[in-house]
Amino acid sequence: MILRRERFKAEYHALPGDFNLYIQGLARQHSKPTHDNTETLAALSADDYKAYLDVKAQHPSALVCFAQNGYFELYGDDAKKAAPLLGTKLLEKTVESHEPIPVTGFKEAAWVAGSHKLWKAGEDVFLSKDGETFKELKGADYIPVGATLEVGAVQCRIDAVDFAADKVMLTNLEVKDHPVQYTESIAYVRGFVEDTGIAIYDTIPKQKDDKPKERSSIREKLKAAKKEQPSRSTAPTKSKGKDIEL
Questions:
Q1: Using CA atoms, how far apart are residues 26 and 129, in angstroms rounded to an integer?
Q2: At what angle are helices 111-119 and 76-86 packed, to 10 degrees?
Q3: Which domains does the chain have, with CATH numbers?
Q4: How far is CA 8 from CA 115, 117, 125, 136, 163, in A?
Q5: C-alpha distances in angstroms, 207 versus 139, 204, 210, 223, 235?
Q6: What is the pLDDT of residues 47-89, one digit of tens each?
Q7: Alpha helix (H) ranges present in 163-217?
């Protein structure tokens, strides 16, 4: 676990400039200079854009990262929301038979660090590559509300998360008569969530259905059982002979 964290830190800190370097290189390879000597990105084909829209329609609330040219790119409103979280520039990308759209992104090789930057902000993240699901992260799983875990050797319950304020609202469960509520930073609580592993999700209370299930009466059950029984065919009656009459 320690080695995994150190490797993650190395990828995490190396990410911010990657997309900007990619933009510069891709622009030099595929773009044409304009009158004011500015460069633009290579155009997104109409088929790829349609494929992206299909994925986005299936995951409207997620930040959709679409694989292109060795990078995961985000478009439109997703790009506007993701750029400050990733620390990357927001640029324009030409689309065939369509108006230019905002774009940003990160390297495919650094997808762990890139998606983590979006995920730790409480966002749903969906990575799509070659028409298939590459990775899907749910923002609610980053700090699972309702779960219980030990935070600093104290048994606590996670009550709420405020990603904008970088706060997690906790309740100390060890003092049952006088439960104490307090806050910790998201990064601090996340460390204990990772140490607990998937077992933390089993501590979340199951939600009960608000609508009670309809209960059928005994008469309705008997009627249903009678309908399911096969119909009996009446056997033909044989005429009795004198030798078998009693």
A1: 19
A2: 100
A3: 2-140 (3.40.1170.10), 148-203 (no CATH)
A4: 12, 12, 18, 18, 21
A5: 19, 9, 9, 34, 56
A6: 999 999 999 999 999 999 999 989 999 999 999 999 999 999 9
A7: 186-196
β-strand partners of 182: 170
Residue linked to tokens 């609202």: 169
Which single residue is written with the structure tokens 């997690």? 168
Model-level pTM?
Answer: 0.68
Residue whose token pair is 């996340």: 190
Total residues found in the chain within this entry: 246
Q: Which tokens is 109 given?
A: 């090789």
For residue 44, give the DSSP letter. B
Name 37's Cβ contacts closer than 8 Å, sequence gap at least 6: none
The values of phi and psi at residue 60, to 5°, are -65, -30
Angle between helix 111-119 and 2-14 (nearest 10):
90
| CA dist list (Å): 185 to 86, 165, 167, 168 | 20, 9, 5, 6
Residue 131 structure tokens? 């028409």
Q: Using alpha carbons, list the distances in angstroms from residue 90 to 16, 21, 127.
A: 12, 13, 19
> Among 62, 50, 49, which Cα is nearest to 138's?
62
